[in-house]
Amino acid sequence: MNDILKRAAARADRAELYHLQQRSLPVTFDAQGLSVIKARRTEGVALRTIDRGRLGYATTTDLQHPEAVVDAALATAIFGEVVDLDMPAQSPRVDGGRLSTGTATPSPERLIELGMAIRERIAEDNESAELGLEIQSTQDCVRVANTAGLAFEETQSFVEISIEATLAQDDDIYTVSDSHVISDVDTASVDDITQRIRWLLAAGRDVVSAPSGTLPVVFTPHGALAVLLPVASGLSGKSVLLGTSPLGDKLGQPIFDERVCLTDDGSCEGGKRWGSADDEGVASCRTGLVSEGVLSSFYYDLRTAKQAETQSTGNGIKGGFFGGRDFRPAPQPNLSHLILGEGGRCFDELISTISSGLVVDTVMGLGQGNVMAGDFSNNVSAAFLIQDGKMAGRVKNVMIAGNSYQLLKDHLIGLSDRSQWIYGRFRFPALALDGLHVASK
Amino acid sequence: MKSTIQQAIAASPADYTEIRIERRWLTHVGYQRDKLENLEVRIESGGVVRCLKNGGWGISVFNDLSSLSKCIAEASRLAQIVSERGDDGVRLAAVPRVEDEFRAHLEHDFRHIPLQEKVALAENYNRMILGASDKIVSSMVQYVDRFIEKTFANSEGTFLVQELPDITLLLGAVAGDGKGDIQLGSESVGQAGGFEWVKGRGDQARAAADRAVAMLEAAPVQGGQHTVILDPHLAGVFIHEAFGHFCEADFLYKNPRLADVMSLGNAFGLPELQVFDEGFVPGHRGNVPFDDEGVRRTKTQLIKDGRLNSLLHSRETAARMGAEPTGNARATTNEFEPIVRMTNTYIENGSTSVEDMIKGVDRGIYAIGAYGGQTEFELFSFSAEYGYEIIDGEVGGLVRNVVLSGNLFETLRSIDAIGNDRDLYGGVGGCGKGGQSSLPCTVGSPHIRIRNVTIGGE
Known about the structure:
The structure holds two protein chains of two kinds.
Chain A: H1 2-11, E1 14-30, E2 33-51, E3 54-60, H2 66-79, H3 108-125, E4 130-146, E5 151-169, E6 172-182, H4 190-203, E7 213-219, H5 225-234, H6 237-242, E8 262-265, E9 286-291, E10 294-295, H7 302-307, E11 316-317, E12 332-333, E13 338-340, H8 347-352, E14 356-363, E15 375-387, E16 390-395, E17 398-403, H9 404-410, E18 412-415, E19 420-422, E20 426-428, E21 431-440
Parallel strand pairs in A: 7-14, 13-20
Antiparallel strand pairs in A: 1-2, 1-4, 2-3, 4-5, 5-6, 7-21, 8-9, 8-13, 9-10, 11-12, 14-15, 15-16, 15-17, 17-21, 18-21, 19-20
Helix pairs in contact in A: 1-2, 3-4
Chain B: H1 2-10, E1 16-32, E2 35-53, E3 56-62, H2 68-85, E4 99-102, H3 115-130, E5 136-154, E6 159-176, E7 182-191, H4 202-215, E8 219-220, E9 224-230, H5 232-243, H6 249-254, H7 256-261, E10 275-278, E11 299-304, E12 307-308, H8 315-321, E13 329-330, E14 339-340, E15 344-347, H9 354-359, E16 363-376, E17 379-391, E18 394-400, E19 403-407, H10 408-413, E20 415-418, E21 423-425, E22 431-433, E23 436-439, E24 442-445, E25 448-455
Parallel strand pairs in B: 4-6, 8-18, 9-16, 15-24
Antiparallel strand pairs in B: 1-2, 1-5, 2-3, 5-6, 6-7, 9-25, 10-11, 10-15, 11-12, 13-14, 16-17, 17-18, 17-19, 19-25, 20-25, 21-24, 22-23
Helix pairs in contact in B: 3-4
């Protein structure tokens, strides 16, 4: 790969090369059982050049012809945006962390065995549930090098498990899904992996009619994403520079209830974006975004940090809030792992204070509505009635709507004392809010 | 390359072997506010091998074309493991062997347009949006052209080379009132065509900006049950997302209860309702001359006179359900295996004019455009870009936050008028399913009117 960087360095003032080798082995089960195994071996590079102050960018999987990607990047650099960014010279120290287990990957047989165990555990209490399951082992080898001297390399191996379970009865279809990122198949707990799915299936057996009006809602950690996703985009340094964040002029000011703490943490073990550095080779770190309700920082990549006259927060990430690594997208400010601080009450206690309301676990249409303004409006797909402080059956055909900024400022009831990972990118406790608009059919 | 591929297949130990090799070229120009945020070129190549052995599938994905034989051996080995542990043997419906070529014919081939011209085009639209009003705080102009060359071969002797062009333009405007309210307006173009499709779109750039500004004054929609008229774009997204995915046979055999509901002949709507999935409509994004199993395109009538008439099939689902393959097995890239997908999907014209449709509504919502949608079995949820109130048979004020949701089957039955002004939309991006996102598809419809739709809001 040094060949591409050398060729680029000879023709441009500065250059950065991102190189990703991915090996993955997804094993897929459908309702009938094991359906397909796929071995994936791919490799690609992204070359970013700066020449006479202008940015060029090209990507390729064709590593047999290194000159082509250099030509393409330099061709774009003729018209590219005038940018200034400080490429890091120092390579971050590579930590031998939990997910970095070297080159050993589990065999297809081992993944099948785990899949069978997961299916059996769920079927124990849910014989009629139809299960879809994918277990994928992934090994990512990331290299970032630049003409300032950085030469960073890290290999990560992990296993992702995605489960979908469907209960169908008469006219009712109830489907729930969950995903987990684990580091080691051999120490994986099937009970833990299936816990949330089993809870959702058990809580959702009976359908009850839903209330309408302005009501309190306890969002499970998973459900809290509906509220926090608009905030996640408002905290981006890029949204601030573009003028599309309602938080742009509020640094240092209280924006939320003082119990709300939001942190981005790329060095946090257990998440899918765990690593010693971001995709620009900047060391991963913890960034306090909202501390006790006060807006303390936005998150930046190299380019937006320079524009905002600050430092990169290690959030130069290729790809969006969800998903794994990809060499194709140019780095953008994106959250590595968004962490919402825990509160003092357990989940059941939060519910016990509510005489009439909802528990919302999963919504449809995440990110729909005017996200920039903080509005969300979602149909629920897994939600439950709260009656006299207790969960009392599943509700259907219910839409919830609200504004994240207003809700987290003036309508926080409380946060639970236990967090969960969501899609390997978010870690939240349960979040109880009042004043949600609920429309039921 | 043909002989290398054919020799590799001939040496495969599997019962059935297919190879798909793709070369892709992409140019992306993206402006955001006053910045050229994205200017990138992608050059990609890679392949996928799929082997069927004793009824089990094994797949191998690769970039390195010299590893073809090794990948066939690997896919075959994985197929063997599946066949030993799985309990559901796969068969493939018979299809004719084909040797053919499909070459793209573009009026202005975007591969020969200098990069400078593409940048200038996007910059010009961006400037129009930013200059439209002092309330415009940001913009988003995305130009993407993509050219794919696919080579497909299988162990039954089929050998195909296809060229698939795709060009999209998104014109987005962001308006702010200076007090924290932010509203969007957008227009898009998407075609399987040349550079001519994205030129001369200044009116759309201005329309996007004007709408974003107007939305600042729009009232939030009143939540509850409404009679809703969907414009052709939103109605097209509805028929694709909420209904079309149900017609994908791989979904149905995984969900036996829905397979009952989706029995051919079941009534879904008024007799005037006709829905098609058409594999080739000249110039449209959803075009699939031959699908990724080498099956020739068809025009499939999904709903005929209000009743379910046909489903969409791959070779595997067709064999399972005793049907004919419909040419709907598609994969987004060589990193994926083909699954059952739509192509160009639309509701055919009915007889009611949009004016008459509006006249028949005392109180309701005229919902326009689509920001996105999601479905979960028969539940759906869609965001319209914007809407208008309808009061006493007349179109009234602009409303925002129009999110429609409901049950597909109830909603189809509640369609009480179908317009006569069908339009097709390629849009930007594409359809996602099973981890394969952004597959180019076309959606379309005339205006339709639906009673009792749940709209979220205050």
